[in-house]
Amino acid sequence: MVPSDPEIIRLISSLALHHKIQANPVLSEIAMLGYGTAIFKYCAAVPTCPAELLEPIHELAAEAIAKADIAKITLLVKVLGNAGHPASLKPIMKILPGFGSAAAALPVRVQVDAILALRSIAKREPKLVQPVALQLFMDKALHPELRMVAAVVLFETKPTVALVSTIASVLKKETSMQIVSFVYSYIRSLTRSTVPDYATVAAASNVAIKILSPKLDRLSYRYSKAIHLDLYKSPVMVGAAGSAFIINDGATILPTAVVAKARAYLAGAAADVLEVGVRTEGIQEALLKTHALEDLEDDRITKMKRVMKAIAEWKTLPKSQPLASVYVKFFGQEIAFANIDKAIIEQAVQLATSADAKVLLKDALKALQTGITAQAAKPLLAAEIRRIFPTAVGVPMELSLYSAAVAAASIKVKATITPPLSEPLNAAELLKADIQLEAEATPSISMHTFAVMGVNTAFLQAAVMARAKAVTVLPAKMAARADVPKLNFKIEVLPVETPEHIAKIRVETLAIARNIEDLAAERITPMVPLVATQLRSTERFASTMSSTSRSASQSSEIIYSDLVPQLRAGVPFHKTICVPAAFIGIKGCFEVTSSNTAFIKDIPLLNLIGEHAVLVAVKPADGPAIERLEAEVQIGPKAAEKLLKEINIIDEQTAEGKTIIAKLKKILEPALRNSSSSSSSLLSSSMFGISSLLSSSSSSSSSSRMSKASLKQYPFKKFHNNQYLVSQGISAQNLRSSGSSASSFEAIYQQNQFLGNAVAPAVVAIFRAVRTDEKLLGYQAAAYLDKTNFRLQIVISALAETDNWKMCADGVVLSKHKVMTKVTWGAECQEYATILKAEAGLLGPSPAARLELEWVKIPTIVTTYATRLAKYIPNAALMAGITVNKAENSEKEMELTVAIPTERTVDVIMKLPQMTLSKLALPLPIALPIGADATIQVIPEENILEQIHFLYAEASSAQCSMIQDTLTTFNNRKYKNEMPISCYQVLAQDCTPELKFMVLLKKDEVTAQNHMNVKIADMDVDLYPTGSDVLVKVNGVVVPISNLPYQHPSAPIQIRQKAQGLSLHAPRLGLQEVYFGKDTLRVNVADWMKGQTCGVCGKADGETRQEYSTPSGYQTKSSVSFVHSWVLPAESCRDSTQCRLKHESVKLEKQLIVDGQESKCYSVEPVLRCLPGCLPVKTMPVTVAFHCLPADYSRSVDLSNISQKSVDLRETAEAHMDCQCNARCA
């Protein structure tokens, strides 16, 4: 809000660069960001502002880059982004990859900040930034996140049709699916843009979208996405736009970064009102992985590196630093940012558990017991917005908004703790104390807002001004009690003195005209004539004497005869509405008064112009006064003592119950008959009323319609007690004992209709108003638990003596796969009833769950709204891509079935009385832990938190599997795994410098069966088949099957039996599960390891077009060459692993003509060959890339760095798969 000029900028500069400010990180950040904002404000008013204003920042940036000070570079880049001066382009480019040498030493997040800083410069000089952003986007060697951010900057420079079409053409050949998904979704969302500044971009996007394949729409949310939505109304020149950029790196559940931006348009001006960015890189890993192996780290990494050293040119992936960051921009200016890394988190935890924290807690508790009284007031200039633009008349037009507010509050808090806390303070004592808290608060706010529209010149000013004033005061007083030992919790809302009005809002519109040279002659005229206001008062008096209701409904236009001719005014509107809330003893009254100019024309603008007032008051309701409101919960054996009204449920089988029900029927029969008939008629009419809609809509969407036959082909098949979960080792006897012993819900219900006759309530909750006449008013709820029959009954009843309303909910777990609940409510729970069933079963071959809602009797209001809603279901469903079919289903039942054909897709079918809705193959963001045989995976953990973590990890993990010789990678690419004899290949490993795990696989020379080796922590685990069993060795020692499960003594690693094989679990080390069976093996890595693995299973990053990545990072096109590159070669033919192969570059046997001359060619990709002294026994062809040299090339060819040469052609070479060595082999 402070004006900016060179003098103020120099003052802010000296303040921001002062050594005392620089010594405080928080103050330095605020001052430096303000320095950049001051330059931006000055340059916005003076476009020719000198670059010298930025020299101090440029010098600091050069110094920070030279010292590689990451924190300083990050801050200065944000300052340059706030300034948005074109002279800052070169300093920013020094830290951009491809432009400056310093970029190689900087992390990706700093480079992202640098690219985002270009956006402010692009607003002033888009053509200057566009080539830089384009070069960054086109550079395929850059990190995908950098290229995606560059695409955002590129589109903000308003590219031409030719440039956007070029981008679309590049996407067709792009190998990174993250980039393809992000840019495609951005282009597609821009095609629907209607805001004026993106009109050319929207037109260009419509051209580009036709170049790209519509199949890209089906990419899952795991890939990066960009979303842009906007709305613009040309007649009033008002609009809003919202953008969200979701950037993912390794197809993980949590994205790497999320940026959300809101943009507003008013009278031809546009502003980025708010922008928030959050980065979560590495946080998931930091929270989920274990740190128990840090003592073993050096030895573990040394062993694994020794293994990987055998693979030539193996490169580790860069390790992301655990970091979370957030920034906030307001009107395009970054006002705050924070970086949170592991050190800061550990420091916060240490501070929270330190002695100082206990002292602070002790002081706070003492202050609460003594009593705290505080008063605070805060003034705020909430808004100051001005927009001045030229008009065709030749005078400037101004739109401005000013808003100022003052917020105040007075607070009183006092606590009582029994028994008193001991010295020294132990926080655990609070869980054994009776704590009472009393609080009283009176918050208030007063706001004044002025909106001005009119002509503004140096001498003459003529405008329309809307002036609004709002005052709110909302006092409150409450008391709370928590008696933890007795499991009693209570909250009371106490009476408090309230002002006459808790809220007052007044708006008036005035016409102002004045001459700066003669302010005394200023004219301020109400937009609504004063005579109309006076008449309003007269009419209010007259109408009060005659009829209050009639005066409140008058709104016709009147021309007053005693006024000047042609002067018209609408009849003022005045109305008072009071809404009683008898339960809490108050009523809210709203008094509305309005005089506007809508009599001229009924449009929104003329409805706003005039005088408006709204008064809100809270008054005592009619009847006995309310002393206080209470909410109390009692848990445990003392719950029954808190019941205020005896609970009885009518037993229909007894004579007394039959008599009571007969009396109730006489009272309720007319109402129930009308309600029931109207309910059924309304429901049937609503469903039959949409038949025409169904027929027309289904005919227009025949391509997506599912036939009735396909739905009826697989009826829902219920599980029986002796068939479900048997494959998991759970016997039928255990299954029956885990559910209810009764055969049906009815049988259990008839045994004991009201559980309160047999057991005491487990929980009682009371919500009531304490009245001065001591009559009960409110509700009580009691929960009863029958552990024998797995039955829960909840009864909610009214406390009033004459009120017999109750709600009864009765739920029973009938078996492991079926739950049923009956809900009745009304007088003695006899008026209305619904039944809810949930059960598991099969829909064809797929496991499924079904939810049924059956209504026996329901209120008329429900059917009324159901009728209205049903009319919109068919068209809304079709718009959402849901198939709609006419069907004759049950008239009083709704059914929802969810089937799981695969781990990552579901089929959803919903049956309504007259139609069936379905959505097949709906993709899921996570994999469900349900097998193909409809069995749920056993959860090995006992702790509930560990169970939740296990289910999340199983659902979000990436899986690589091999059945026979067919391998399916983490990214679901399938190929035949051609394995050499006796040589280990890297199946999957942690490819970061931490090397947390490594999974190796080889084919045994004797049995030709697979053997697996897992290196993790200080363990070397061998899994191998013997006959029909699978055995395990840990560090060379056989672990008998009878000793499983095997638990590592210090690390969270467990080996146990599973199905027909063995399973190793180490989720805290990134290895969710390794399963080894006789013909099947699986490797599951944790979600936070995605994008950080390597081996023949791939990177688990979702990049299916970049699947075949060799140890050197080279992308091969042959699956065979890819698999062979991950084979661990032998150092000699006497190697203990009996491997006799090595990698080498081979010469092409034939000479070819390349570029017009005879050439000799050498393979760029390594080929498996036998060691010297060994002969190949088994070979296979493999297609590899070759680099060619002239045939007369005289110098010796250095094959050590041949992999870095360019590819001239691809030819078939011979790879050795098995070798036989002679006795002289060394």
From TrEMBL:
This is Phosvitin. GO terms for molecular function: lipid transporter activity; nutrient reservoir activity. Coiled coil: none annotated. SUPFAM superfamilies: Lipovitellin-phosvitin complex, beta-sheet shell regions, Lipovitellin-phosvitin complex, superhelical domain. It comes from the Eukaryota. Residues 1-258 form the Vitellogenin domain. PROSITE patterns: VITELLOGENIN, VWFD. Gene3D superfamilies: Lipovitellin-phosvitin complex, chain A, domain 4, Lipovitellin. Chain A, domain 3, Vitellinogen, beta-sheet shell domain, Vitellinogen, superhelical. InterPro entries: Lipid_transp_b-sht_shell (IPR015819), Lipovitellin_superhlx_dom (IPR011030), Vitellinogen_b-sht_shell (IPR015258), Vitellinogen_b-sht_shell_sf (IPR037088), Vitellinogen_open_b-sht (IPR015255), Vitellinogen_open_b-sht_sub1 (IPR015817), Vitellogenin/Apolipophorin (IPR050733), Vitellogenin_N (IPR001747). The keyword Zinc-finger does not apply. Keywords: Glycoprotein, Storage protein. The keyword Glycoprotein applies. GO terms for biological process: cellular response to estrogen stimulus; response to estradiol. Residues 958-1134 form the VWFD domain. Pfam families: Vit_b-sht_shell, Vit_open_b-sht, Vitellogenin_N, VWD.
